[in-house]
Design a protein that fits this description.
The complex is a heterodimer.
Chain A (H helix, E strand, L loop, with lengths): L1 H22 L2 E7 L8 H15 L3 E6 L7 H10 L4 E5 L4 H10 L4 E5 L8 E6 L2 H14 L4 E6 L4 H17 L4 E6 L6 H13 L4 E4 L5 H8 L3 E6 L10 E7 L1 H14 L11 E4 L6 E3 L12 H6 L1 E4 L3 E4 H13 L12 E2 L5 E3 L7 H5 L8 E2 L7
Parallel strand pairs in A: 1-2, 1-3, 3-4, 4-5, 5-11, 6-7, 6-8, 7-17, 8-9, 9-10
Antiparallel strand pairs in A: 10-12, 13-14, 15-16
Helix pairs in contact in A: 2-9, 3-4, 5-6, 5-11, 7-8
Chain B lengths: L1 H30 L7 H19 L2 H25 L4 H19 L17 H19 L1 H11 L1 H6 L4 H27 L11 H11 L4 H20 L6 H18 L23
Helix pairs in contact in B: 1-5, 1-8, 1-9, 1-10, 2-3, 2-4, 2-8, 2-9, 3-4, 3-8, 5-6, 5-10, 6-8, 9-10, 10-11
The chains are: A alpha/beta, B mainly alpha.
């Protein structure tokens, strides 16, 4: 009799366990550098996480926010302890911590955003804005009346420098005498600093602004003085519907859905990621031009951009509006008929940085420290 | 040149107004003998409540009033712990700061990314009112009986108690008053200075306000120039980036404050901290 009961319980447990594993979802953990309420970088990652969770079958996600850069490892360990089989670390500063954790958890898959170190179980991914910044620059060059365009920058690291240089190349393509004035605030998120830096730039005579800061402060501040600006990262057009020309928007979910689907399908394992590096741009749909989803150029600025004419070496003479749309189409095409960083390009000191006819490679873009011509202001580690 | 100076003055006042309000509140709390390190928490609670009220009712002024109420209520928590429970005031204040930032982070989910239509201009009546309030608070502190009562609670609570002053009540009210002003300062940030809500938006302003209270020698009039000086230096740290390396400019406002303190150290007799600052008072003890 006792034997029957024991057998019965055993069968019950085994059957429950079996159904348990069959229904077990793939757990993906996300480590964020900032709060999801920042309406910038981390907010965008979190929105993408939610979309990925809904889109990819059999995936559940967990996240930890506001993790200081040096403390990625303890939090990664915690997520792995909770059963995460995939861990995404969403900041450049987490790079070394992620690599160390990847070595200690060889059965867990890691993916690190905006970095360049990889391992058999650690991939890298990035949705980069430089093409979109170039398009923004074309518009800024056309709209500036004082010839001075402003940029509020966060940290002088290659990513931000690349964006500012792409922006400046766009500005100069339309307005060869314009200058891009840069002010640094040394924080990714600091509304007060962004505000005062904007005021400082406006006091210098700037009348169009772009920025890298995780809040709509610059947009609001520029709009207060009736000046045009470009939204950054999240749809900020609603903060200044009449004064946001365009901007940069991101769709991290394109990468997350692709990555998680491949993990589910077994294409990505914890052994074959050493060469997996997502460098996704307009062509993959990972980034989008606009201050709001689906609005590449604010209709309020359409007529001004159509009235401004520019002569280009390959497309002839056309309005800036048409130029922006054409360049966007060229770059959205996977064959990439156009790239802003195509030589010959000199840096602002006159040294040749990109040879004639050549394009910058991903490695060069990821490590660029030089400044494009037209940029005015302090530039740390300028070669 | 004149334009440069004028521009700097305007920015100094815009940046300095919330610092002044919060600093004045902290001066009163500390004059009564209670250190309240929770200014950051009270400010951000005020910022969030002001934003919510301004957004839902369309009345930014009402938002400021509610912000003051919220700040004052939060401060009462600290007052209870510091005055009645006689626990370590520094720890309690720090806990309040963290509580405020954390609570607003949780409550504020979903509130970011909403533009506020009902706003106040950043240089407005509130700025002029803050100068008048500072002058008024200085007058009260040094030339009225209420001021003497507050100061005595901070300098020598035992003597005040012997003369019939209810030290506990005075400390409670001063801390609450400090909280009200800090809440209004935070509300100013989210309704006038930068009309929107993002988690952690006070960005350390509360700590600066505490520093201003000390820098001003616990004198409301000196707090005016302390707050606006800091505002000017903060603005200049961006304006001057074309001539001075930005890394140096980053520390300029803080380094400058230390320099001024060091330079004026000799002439600061009689400006020391209230004697009983930070010490819990028990009726009947010396």
């Amino acid at each position: 009799m006792r034997l029957l009961i024991v057998l019965g319980v055993l069968m019950l447990v085994v059957s429950l366990a079996a159904t348990g594993t069959a229904q077990q979802k793939l757990k993906a953990g996300f480590i964020y550098i900032g709060p999801i309420g920042d309406y910038g970088w981390t907010h965008a990652h979190d929105q993408a996480r939610r979309i990925a969770e809904k889109t990819v079958a059999g995936v559940e996600t967990v996240y930890v926010e506001s993790v200081p850069e040096a403390q990625a490892e303890p939090f990664i360990d915690k997520l792995v302890q909770q059963g995460a089989k995939v861990v995404f670390t969403t900041s450049f500063g987490f790079m070394d911590g992620t690599l160390a954790a990847a070595k200690r958890h060889p059965e867990v898959i890691f993916a690190h955003a905006s970095g360049f170190k990889r391992a058999p179980n650690m991939a890298t991914y990035m949705a980069d804005f430089y093409q979109v910044y170039y398009l923004n620059g074309l518009m800024a060059g056309a709209l500036t009346k004082t010839g001075k365009v402003g940029y509020v920058g966060a940290f002088p690291i290659p990513e931000v420098k690349r964006h500012i240089s792409a922006f400046a190349l766009g500005v100069r393509a339309v307005n060869p005498k314009a200058t891009v004035h840069v002010r640094w605030i040394f924080e990714w998120f600091k509304p007060a600093a962004a505000k005062e830096a904007t005021a400082a730039l406006i006091a210098e005579g700037v009348d169009v602004l772009a920025f890298t800061e995780d809040s709509p402060t610059v947009v609001q501040e520029a709009a207060k003085r009736k000046l045009a600006s470009f939204s950054h990262y999240s749809p900020m057009q609603k903060f200044a519907p009449q004064h946001t020309v365009s901007g940069q928007l991101v769709h991290w979910e394109k990468i997350y859905v692709d990555f998680l689907s491949k993990v589910q399908a077994g294409t990505y394992t914890a052994k074959n990621l050493a060469n997996v590096d997502y460098w996704w741009l307009l062509a993959e749909g990972a980034v989008e031009l606009g201050g709001d989803f689906g609005v590449p150029i604010n209709p309020a600025y359409k007529s001004r951009l159509q009235a401004a004419k520019v002569t280009t070496p390959d497309l002839g003479r056309l309005s800036v509006y048409d130029l922006v749309m054409k360049r966007q189409a060229q770059m959205a095409n996977p064959k990439m008929g156009f790239d802003p960083f195509t030589g010959p390009i000199n840096d602002r000191k006159g040294a040749l940085r990109v040879a004639a006819g050549k394009r910058m490679t991903v490695g060069e873009l990821n490590t660029m420290e030089w400044a494009a011509p037209g940029i005015v202001g302090p530039w740390a580690k300028e070669p | 040149m004149m334009e440069y100076v004028l521009d700097t003055v305007i920015r100094a006042v815009a940046v300095g107004t919330p610092l002044l309000w919060a600093g004045l509140g902290e001066i009163y709390a500390e004059r009564a003998g209670v250190v309240n390190l929770g200014v950051e928490g009270m400010m951000i609670l005020g910022a969030f409540s002001a934003f919510v009220i301004a957004h839902t009712t369309g009345n930014p002024a009402l938002g400021l009033v509610v912000a003051g109420g919220v700040g004052g209520t939060a401060a009462l928590l600290h007052a209870f712990v510091a005055v009645t429970l006689r626990a370590n005031q520094y720890v309690s204040g720090l806990a309040l700061a963290m509580l405020g930032v954390g609570l607003t982070g949780v409550l504020g989910r979903g509130w970011e990314g909403i533009p506020l239509l009902a706003t106040l201009p950043e240089i407005s009546a509130l700025t002029y009112v803050s100068i008048v309030v500072a002058a008024g608070l200085w007058f009260v502190l040094y030339h009225t009986r209420v001021g003497i009562v507050i100061r005595s609670a901070g300098e020598s609570p035992a003597a005040a108690d012997a003369l019939g002053v209810n030290v506990y009540l005075v400390r409670y009210l001063s801390v609450a008053f400090g909280g009200v002003l800090a809440g209004v300062a935070g509300g100013f940030l989210s309704v006038a200075y930068r009309p929107s809500w993002t988690e952690g938006m006070t960005g350390g302003a509360g700590w600066i306000a505490i520093a201003i209270a000390i820098f001003a020698g616990w004198n409301p009039l000196k707090a005016i120039w302390g707050a606006f000086l800091f505002g000017a230096l903060y603005y200049l740290s961006f304006r001057l980036q074309t001539w001075v390396p930005p890394e140096l400019l980053r520390m300029m406002p803080f380094a400058f404050t230390i320099l001024v303190l060091a330079a004026t150290a000799g002439s600061r007799r009689g400006e020391g901290a209230p004697e009983a600052l930070g010490l819990p008072y028990v009726s009947g003890q010396r």
